[in-house]
Design a protein that fits this description.
heterodimer, A: 295 residues, mainly alpha, MetI-like fold, two-stranded antiparallel ribbon, 1% strand, flat, B: 431 residues, alpha+beta, D-Maltodextrin-Binding Protein, domain 2, 2 domains, 9-stranded mixed beta sheet, two-stranded antiparallel sheet, 18 helices, MetI-like (chain A)
């Protein structure tokens, strides 16, 4: 009887959480899936069922394909930059834990993660500015040639990768630091007795032992990379000065299709594709790292 | 000895609650209306209009919330499709408002407001029509965006140029003579600043203005339908001119500072823009010597109207009164003088402002054959312009197009196909 009461209490206690989760998380996803099958202009009361027509149109749409390619490059690029850099930074900070500046190092690395995105992107826009930016000033003072960072098709994508990486780095370092603190000290002591250098210990012990952390960081970085929007928007926008080259990304394309072109079903189909990509990539990452971890 | 009564915690709570209730009842009597605009430079103007209503509406609280135009358009789309709580005055370009009106998301204006708009002594038919759908008035005309050439008089004098260019061929010649370069030949001051990068419909809109001078139009109307009108000689001439400026004569580069900011800093000699630049320059570069000139053939004119949505009947009445108050001569003269947007109301004496700021003459003293055009009120207009703009930005930055008319025409034809496909999907493609 008591057991049943406890069970009932547990169910009652968890119901509000499930309701909230269902309402704010599951309902929008289901509604987006439904809308992707309709032709709807946001304003009309009529929604016309079009089946998979929105999806077939998307794969013939140059702008969508361009956005998909750019987003994938940015997401994988940010992941490729963030993981090794954050792991190395976390390693350095961890080995300087006893330094009185340890707290400062951690805070300094974490600050970009909590800084508001738009002002941060504005600051980077100035850094990348072709004529007035400090980046080109440094390059030129070293004898190099000034680059049109925000206007060149390749460099403008690299700028966004750098900006996304700069923002995700702090969080990744924090997670890696937790990982470093949980690594068994005895293994490192044994390695030191066997004559392993610090770099060897890092490469052959820390890196493999931190695989679960790497899995988590790579999933989080990849997902945030696929959701890139404000960075591309701010770096390209300027109504009265020198707007940069607009790097079309998926979220930007979705917003434009929804609220400027009034093609909500079409934008929902884009969202479904983005969701599928993120789910598939996450599953692949989990399976790869689990396999390697098992081996 | 006077006795002091001490109130315990309960007494304090009761007193505080009573105070809050009183404050609540006072604020409940006040009438709130919200003004949403896409031109932040008009904030002071709207606040001034609100002050002007204080005698007739002493309890009216006007909340002015302007943001950038593109974001404003997004919030209006979201708000109107989901419903507005407060009575809201919406500042919208006529072609944008049309899609909300045909979907019954904007109410028609009350009869008194409609009479004001329909009065020929207040507005010319062009502006009345942009606020009217199927014979019903939905908005109150306010101001318009209209282009003219801005040129730096000192730079023209230094280059030995007497007066502004009057043909598109002269624009090229002037740009070549006005461009300043470093030792390596790289332009440091552009001769003619063009909109070459960024995103959105603005690039195609600016291209349309230039193409109009060559005798073309991005969209051609046939009856009540449309088709792409730029894969032709006029389109070729306009795109060739852009490509030649960037990659041929190199009078401008993609990464150069551009637009009003560049003009005010002396980083460009000429550019085409709306009249707000006059007000903006007065604030940011008061010592700049410049003038304006008519464009060779005509200009775009984008009328902006005030619409009302949401709130109680009483609040809506106050919101419509705000739209009428905004059109009072003293406010319109203030707007022209201090902000620079061109009011649409006729019968108001703007001569004092125009005499003090002769740069306005290129916007108001128009010859009879000067052609004004506007964006068509069709649902896919933004998508057409945005997609065309994406193609244009790629073309502007492609040096291989310089001198290759065939390749330029191929880009225009491929883009025109896309435009026609969008029109076809919307069911408004002309044969």
């Amino acid at each position: 009887m008591l057991r049943r009461k406890k069970f009932l209490f547990a169910i009652l206690a968890i119901i509000p959480t499930f309701v909230i989760f269902g309402w704010v998380r599951m309902f929008p996803i289901i509604e987006t899936l439904r809308l992707s099958m309709y032709d709807w202009n946001l304003l009309s009361k009529n929604k016309t069922f079009v089946g998979f027509s929105n999806f077939s149109q998307l794969f013939r749409d140059d702008q969508f394909l361009d956005a998909l390619t750019n987003t994938a490059i940015i997401a994988f690029g940010a992941m490729a930059v963030t993981i090794p850099v954050s792991m190395a930074l976390a390693g350095v900070i961890y080995h300087r834990t006893r330094s009185r500046f340890a707290g400062f190092y951690e805070t300094a690395v974490f600050i970009p993660h909590v800084v508001s995105l738009v002002p941060a992107a504005m600051a980077w826009k100035w850094i990348f500015d072709a004529k007035l930016g400090p980046l080109n000033a440094i390059i030129m003072s070293l004898g190099g040639e000034a680059q049109a960072w925000l206007f060149d098709p390749v460099l403008s994508v690299i700028c966004i990768i750098l900006l996304v990486s700069w923002q995700t780095l702090g969080y990744a370092v924090l997670i890696y630091l937790v990982g470093f603190r949980n690594l068994p000290k005895s293994v490192y002591e044994a390695a030191r007795l066997d004559g392993a250098s610090g770099i060897q210990s890092f490469l052959f012990m820390s890196v493999p032992l931190l695989k679960p952390i790497t899995l988590y960081v790579s999933v989080v970085t990849l997902i945030s990379g696929f959701n890139v929007y404000a960075q591309a928007y701010v770096l390209a926008s300027d109504t009265q000065g020198a707007p940069g080259r607009l790097v079309r990304v998926l979220v930007l394309d979705m917003l434009e299709n929804s609220f400027q072109n009034f093609r909500v079903g079409y934008a929902a189909a884009e969202a479904v594709i983005l969701l599928s990509i993120v789910l598939v990539l996450t599953a692949v990452q989990f399976s790869l790292l689990r396999q390697k971890g098992g081996n | 000895m006077p006795s002091h009564k001490r109130y315990g915690p309960l007494g304090k709570t009761v007193t505080l609650s009573a105070g809050l209730m009183l404050a609540g009842s006072i604020s409940a009597q006040a009438q709130d209306i919200v003004v949403w605009g896409g031109f932040p430079e008009l904030t002071d103007y709207y606040e001034r209009v609100a002050e002007g209503m204080s005698d007739d509406y002493p309890d009216l609280n006007v909340i002015v919330e302007p943001i950038g135009l593109r974001d404003h358009e997004k919030r209006v789309a979201l708000a109107l499709s989901s419903g507005l709580d407060d009575a809201t005055v919406l500042e919208l370009i006529g072609s944008t408002a049309n899609r909300y009106i045909v979907n019954d998301l904007l109410p028609p204006a009350p009869s008194g407001v409609a009479d004001f708009v329909n009065d020929g002594e207040n507005f010319e038919p062009f502006f009345r029509d942009t606020a009217t759908v199927d014979g019903s008035v939905y908005g109150v005309p306010l101001f318009r965006g209209q282009g003219a050439l801005f040129y730096n008089t000192d730079m023209l004098a230094e280059a030995g140029l007497d007066g502004p260019p009057t043909t598109m061929e002269e624009y090229d010649d002037y740009a070549a003579k006005l461009t300043q370069r470093d030792e390596g030949g790289t332009p440091t001051v552009s001769g003619w600043s063009l909109r070459l990068s960024g995103g959105g419909a603005g690039i195609a809109e600016k291209f349309w203005i230039n193409m109009h001078q060559h005798g073309g139009s991005v969209l051609e109307q046939v009856g009540d339908k449309y088709r792409a009108g730029y894969a032709n000689e006029a389109g070729l001439a306009a795109l060739r001119q852009y490509v030649n400026a960037v990659s041929g004569d190199k009078t401008v580069s993609i990464d150069m500072p551009a637009d009003a900011a560049a003009f005010q800093r002396g980083q460009t000699a000429m550019f085409i823009r709306e009249s707000w630049v006059i007000g903006d320059t007065e604030k940011k570069a008061p010592d700049l010597n410049y003038d304006t000139a008519l464009l060779p053939r005509g200009s775009i004119a984008l009328p902006v109207n005030l619409y009302v949505s949401g709130g109680s009947d009483k609040a809506q009445e106050a919101a419509w009164a705000f739209a009428i108050e905004a059109n009072k001569p003293e406010h319109l003269i203030w707007m022209l003088d201090n902000v620079g947007w061109l009011p649409n109301r006729v019968g108001v004496d703007y001569s004092g402002v125009i005499e003090a700021k002769p740069q306005f003459s290129a916007f108001v003293d128009l010859p009879e054959d000067y052609e004004l055009f506007t964006l068509p009120s069709i649902e896919p207009i933004n998508e057409i312009l945005t997609r065309f703009a994406a193609k244009l930005t790629e073309a502007f930055a492609d040096p291989s197009l310089a001198g290759d008319d065939e390749a330029i025409m191929a880009i225009l034809e491929s883009s025109a196909e896309e435009t026609n496909a969008i029109l076809d999907r919307a069911g408004i493609l002309a044969e």
